[in-house]
Structures are given as C-alpha cells and as structure tokens.
Amino acid sequence: MRLSRYFLPILKENPREAEIVSHRLMLRAGMIRQQGAGSFSWLPLGKRVLDKVCRIIREEQDRSGALEIMMPTIQSADLWRESGRYDAYGKEMLRIKDRHERDMLYGPTNEEMVTDIFRAYVKSYKDLPLNLYHIQWKFRDEVRPRFGVMRSREFLMKDAYSFDLDYEGAKEAYHRMFVAYLRTFTRMGLQAIPMRADTGPIGGDLSHEFIILAETGESQVYCHRDYLGFEVPGEDVDFGNAAEIAGIVGKWTTPYAATDEMHDEAAWSAIAGDDKVSARGIEVGHIFHFGEKYSKPMNASVTGPDGKEHFVSMGSYGIGPSRLIAAIIEASHDENGIVWPESISPFDVALINMKSGDTECDRVCNELEAALSAAGKDVLYDDTDQRPGAKFATADLIGLPWQLIVSPRGVAAGEVELKNRKTGERENLSIAAAIARLG
Ligand code: ATP
Ligand code: MG
Ligand code: MG
Ligand code: MG
Predict the structure, then answer these.
(1) Which one, of 255, 250, 249, 251, lies nearest residue 270 by Cα?
(2) pLDDT confidence of residue 203
(3) What's the pLDDT band for 22 if we cut at 50, 70, 90?
(4) Ligand 1 nearest atom to the CA of residue 157, by list position
(5) Ligand 1 in reach of 140 Cβ (< 6 A)
(6) CA distances in angstroms from 50 to 156, 323, 351, listed in the order given
(7) Does residue 23 have its Cβ closer than 6 Å to ligand 1?
(8) Fewest CB within a 10 Å sphere: which of 210, 223, 277, 425?
(9) Which residues form a coiled coil (predicted)?
(10) What pLDDT score was predicted for residue 201?
(11) pTM exceeds 0.90
C-alpha cells in the first residue's frame, strides 16, 4: 500500500477529549473517528487491526470446536419477553419501534436469540455438545461511555454460547472456552489473567473475567504474582481431551485471582506480601456458566439417553475486540506512539523513502515493496513528499514493528536501514539481506 494513496488522517495535536493514552493514540493515528457519544467509525488503519484481532479470535474459537454463525443486530422484544429480560435489562437496552409499532431492540447480547435457534433444530443429546458464536455489533446505552472504544455504546463483541445435556458437559465446554481465551490473548501479545467473577443468583464458580493489568483499568483486581510467569498452552493443545483441558484450567485457577466484587480478604491476607498484585485491570473477556437460566423459560430441551426431556445447560463467552485494541495500546506504547505486537499490526513493515522522486531511492523502494509483498508481507510504503522528520514521526506513531529506511546516502552504499520500532535498534543491511530478514 502506498501512503500517497492511503487514507491516514494523522492528527498532530493531542485531542483534548481523550483522557487515556489508547484513546489519544487511536485518534492521532487516524484509526477511529468519533461519530457521537460512544459511537465510532473505524478508518482504514483501525479496520485492519480490528480484522486481525477478529481473525485470531476466530481461529481460536474454531480450534476449540465452536462454530461461527451470524445473528442480526436488531431483535424482537417478544423473544426477550420469553426470558423475562425485556423488562429486567433496564436502561442499557436501546428500545426501538418499527413501522408497525412492534417493539424491537438493538441487541446488547444474544442469549435469547441463540436459544431460539437451538430449540428450533436440536432435539437429541446426540447432537451435543454444541457451541455457536458470532462476531457482531452490540449496543449498550452505557451511563458513561468514555475512553474511546474502551467503553463505547456501539461496540463489537464475539459472543459464544454452549449447549450441553448436563452440568458435567457444560463444565467441559466452559473449560474449552477458558483455554481458548488464554491462547487468544497471548497471541495478541497480551497477558490476560482469568479472575473469579460474580456468578450472582446462578451460583457456583464458573465465571471468570479475563483481565489485563493497566493503570487506566476501570476495575480493582487482586491476584497472585505466579500468574505473571505462567505459560500458556500451545497450538498442540488437544481440545478433545477433557482431562488435559481440565488440568490447564486447574492450574490457571489455583492461585488467588479475583475482581473487586469477589475479593476475599481472608484468602488475600494469607498470601505473602511480595506475591500480592493489587492493581487496576481492564475486562477484555468474560465467560459464564448459567445452566438453565434461558433454556427453561424458553423451553430449549433435548431428549437424553434416559429417554426423558432435559433443559440444556448453557454458558456464554464474550470478548470485546474493539475494547481489546484499546487495551493492547494501553499495554504497548511509548512516548512516540503505538508499538504493535506483530500478530495484529495493521501492516508488517513501514517502508520509508527519505527522498521520494530521487530515481535511485524510488527504484530501491519499488524493489523492496515488490519483493516483500511477494513474500506475503503487508508493506505501507511512505512515498509521499513529506520531510524525513515527519515521515519518521508518522511511522513511530502508527507503530508498525519494522521500519525500512531508504536514503540517498544508503542507496549509494548499496544499503538500507532497518529499525525495530519496539527496541529502537537500527541496523544497516544490503537490500538482499533486508528482504531475506523481513520476507
Ligand atoms: P463492563 O463490566 O466493562 O461493563 P460487561 O461485564 O458489561 O463489561 P460483558 O457483558 O461481560 O461486559 O461482555 C463481554 C465483553 O464485551 C466484555 O468483557 C468486554 O470486553 C466487552 N464490552 C462490554 N461492554 C463494552 C463496552 N461498552 N465497550 C466495549 N466493549 C465492551
Ligand atoms: Mg457493562
Ligand atoms: Mg463487567
Ligand atoms: Mg462481564
């Protein structure tokens, strides 16, 4: 991609409305534009990151056995009357009427709708387990939308829903999703800690919030230092092996980790002072077992091996891709801008032509762009006539992991300069070596 033909509306000044660094940097890097209270457009650079985040989420959901569907954003109130949530949900739900005066709503979540799909088709325990997910926009009329896409009103959510014959099956489904979440966040360069979360009237211990530690987090959280050194299961983890999956969950739920609402002073005080991590955290994911909460009122049942009807035992599993991007920036930036982890960077390489229009610089840049693209790399080629200082500032701001700098002096010596955005390390390489390194 040539920057001269791209749409990258960089802001030079810090936007006054942005209180936290991720919001500031997303606006400055031209990733998003605010359209109203808690409502954002995703501009080309932001959209690329959003797509990469969703791709990783998808791959890990699929690996764990979940199946992707897509449900509408606008739902009928009648479905929500069946579960009793139409009245119970309160002011966060955006209620709409269609031209026939029918009550509709913009989905804040999809338990009712997915239960409706399930009950229409699935009749036997032999068709279980089943886990259906989608990645779809949600609307919640938050009291205080703030911090950009961190807490917006319209936001993207991956929500998965598991259906099982009984509690044991539902617990295994919960475990699989737990492990899928560990892998998902790690692949994005994040250290997410599963913390015990409130189960409310459902009870039990199957509710965890996945929390990123960050000063700007909205929740107060407490955990054992051990979590910071835990290794996340690799790609070879066997989701078909319930004992292996349960073992991983066991390890990741043994040391103390709880959000404010679940905090237990007695258990906390038993931990040695140095091992206590009390910090602010960002909730990027939440998994929850709720049993028959929806299947019972909505009559979603299957015939069991005993020949009797059983209400299915369900769970739901959310991740906020839009919030995640803000959380990643909170965790990975410096005074010059964003520092993307490679896996979700909008492009792989910033190719910087320090003297666009110079025949030799242009020739070398074209050669590098072609060779790296052929090797499957996404290159953002700054071919504009901006001054080098401005080009470097832009490249640092948008935070691509590698900058490849082509200058008249370098080209005369047959060399280009490679800069690592994260470490700042610079190195002169021949053109062929640069291609080999990045390709
Ligand atoms: P919060 O406690 O921050 O209000 P929540 O507990 O209401 O979040 P869930 O219902 O558990 O959120 O939704 C699943 C995920 O969706 C959250 O873990 C978060 O990543 C994301 N999410 C929820 N609300 C928002 C929002 N207003 N803006 C962006 N992402 C959100
Ligand atoms: Mg909320
Ligand atoms: Mg919450
Ligand atoms: Mg939650």
Answers:
(1) 255
(2) 79
(3) very high
(4) 16
(5) yes
(6) 9, 10, 22
(7) no
(8) 425
(9) none
(10) 80
(11) yes
